[in-house]
Write a structure and sequence with these properties.
By secondary structure, the protein is an all-alpha fold. It has a single domain, classed as Up-down Bundle (AhpD-like), CATH 1.20.1290.10. Helices cover 77% and strands 0% of the residues. The protein has 10 helices and no strands. Helix 3 crosses helix 5 and helix 5 (65-91) crosses helix 8. The longest helix has 27 residues, at 65-91. The chain is globular and about 50 Å long. This is Alkyl hydroperoxide reductase AhpD. The active site is at 131 (proton donor), 134 (cysteine sulfenic acid (-soh) intermediate). Belongs to the AhpD family. It catalyses: N(6)-[(R)-dihydrolipoyl]-L-lysyl-[lipoyl-carrier protein] + a hydroperoxide = N(6)-[(R)-lipoyl]-L-lysyl-[lipoyl-carrier protein] + an alcohol + H2O.
Length: 180
């Protein structure tokens, strides 16, 4: 299994990450689609080739083709939106918030899956990308649609653990002596 391959690849000093990776993927109260869409969107947000490849293999076994595409779409649209909205927020001039973004975001309105699931994936990706404005916006929509804080927290924990897995494995790869 792909998550198992990632867990086995983590070095000893990352035991906490290894245990958390197992926990967030095996004890979740999220639906299967919410869980694996979140894991996949987060893997894509990390940009780690190894994590993406391992997660995509297992996610494909747990998601419909439509959900798989929607999770990719969440990672893609948030890669753009997180930069834009984080920047307009960090500038500190609220006038930017009143200007139209003039960025196409059709997938958010028609993601091809349950809108709540897509919003959850966007929230998790926004956590990885560090966009407070997007986190606030997606959390509000999720709460209004009836998702509990505990389920939203699960998505945030998944984002944290998938990101830490990618950071650790990429660091280990960079530290490894070059193959001759």
């Amino acid at each position: 299994m792909s998550i198992d391959a990632l867990k086995n690849a983590l070095p000893g000093y990352a035991k906490d990450i290894k245990l958390n990776l197992g926990s967030v993927t095996s004890t979740s109260q999220l639906t299967e689609q919410q869980l694996w869409g979140t894991v996949l969107a987060c893997a894509l947000a990390t940009r780690s080739r190894r994590v993406i490849a391992e997660v995509a293999e297992e996610a494909a076994d747990n998601l419909s083709a439509e959900a798989f595409e929607a999770a990719k779409g969440a990672a893609s649209i948030m890669a753009m939106n997180n930069v834009y909205y984080r920047a307009t927020h960090l500038i500190g001039d609220e006038a930017y918030a009143t200007l139209p973004a003039k960025l196409r975001m059709t997938i958010i309105g028609r993601p091809g899956v349950d809108k709540t699931d897509f919003e959850l994936w966007c929230l998790a990706v926004s956590a990885i990308n560090g966009c407070g404005r997007c986190l606030e916006s997606h959390e509000k929509v999720l709460r209004e649609s009836g998702l509990s804080r505990e389920l939203i927290q699960e998505a945030l924990r998944i984002a944290a653990v998938v990101n830490a897995t990618a950071a650790t494995l990429d660091a280990e790869e960079a530290l490894a002596p070059a193959a001759v």
